[in-house]
Amino acid sequence: MSQATAPTAPRSLHAPSRSRGVHPRPAAFESVPYEDIDNLAVRIAGVDDHAHVEALAQRAGVSRPEGGLLVALAGERMLAATSIANRETVSEPTPSGLAAAAVLRYRLADQARRARTPRRGGKHS
Fold it and tell me: CA-to-CA distance for 73 and 57, rounded, in angstroms?
C-alpha cells in the first residue's frame, strides 16, 4: 500500500487549478492597493456622502445608484454603495471593493429576510 501525501505549501492564487484552468489577477487590480477591510463600517449614506458616492461611481465607470444608499467604508475611503430600493451597487474596482459590495448585498438580503420572518412573542406573566 502506498502512502498518500499532501502538499505542504499553499497553492498560489495564480496557480492553475486542475478543473478550472488559470485565473490571473485582473490587470485593473495590479495598480490599486488592497484596503484593509477588517474594520469595514456599514451605514446609511448621509447628505454629506453625496460627493463621495459620485466619485466612487466615476472611478467605477458607472452611474450613481438611485435613492437611499447603504455604504461601506474602510477608514475614510468609501469602497461600495448599494441602493436600498433596488440593490443597484457601485464599488471600487478592487478585491476590497468587491468584498464590500458583497457585504452590502448580504446586509440588505438579511434585512429583507428578517422583515418577512414573523417574530415569536414571549409569554406574558
Answer: 14
